[in-house]
Amino acid sequence: MKLNVKIMPKNGVLDPQGKAIENSLSQLGFKNFSEIRQGKIIEIDIDADKDQAINITDEMCKKLLVNLIIEDYEIIFDREE
Amino acid sequence: MKLNVKIMPKNGVLDPQGKAIENSLSQLGFKNFSEIRQGKIIEIDIDADKDQAINITDEMCKKLLVNLIIEDYEIIFDREE
Known about the structure:
CATH topology of chain A: Mth169, Chain: A
Radius of gyration of chain A: 16 Å
Oligomer: homodimer
CATH class of chain A: Alpha Beta
Number of helices of chain A: 2
Largest interface: A-B, 32 and 32 residues
Helix content of chain A: 25-40%
Strand content of chain A: 35-45%
Largest sheet of chain A: 3 strands, antiparallel
CATH superfamily of chain A: Phosphoribosylformylglycinamidine synthase subunit PurS
Strand order of the largest sheet of chain A: 2-1-3
CATH architecture of chain A: 2-Layer Sandwich
Number of strands of chain A: 3
Distance between the termini of chain A: 8 Å
Order of helices and strands of chain A: EHEHE
């Protein structure tokens, strides 16, 4: 079962990469955009059924992948599943 | 209109971050997983309708956000939209 873990800086946590992108886009002449934030996405293929895969991924996030003090995460399945 | 740009290393391009995560997960005792790849996700809020937002984001990706030689990207709308 393939899944994605989307890891974003929590609201209120400074996101320098997002700010850098905003500045560069402005300099390139882009307008009408706001609130750019950059996070990480991790694709994992887990050999388990959906419920189990969610549990395993949750544990992976808490033990290794996510810094829960400054980051939020979300487990996303591919559309077709 | 809020959208996400998911940027992943192309298939065949070395993904050292993904490999590092695989190694760390193994050392923590996780099994049954494979093919871990890490990419970036960028959230953007664009003041335009859906078609326009896709066009603008495409241009942002090509001009700044994505290195098309080694990365693939995908524009993803939030579920509710």
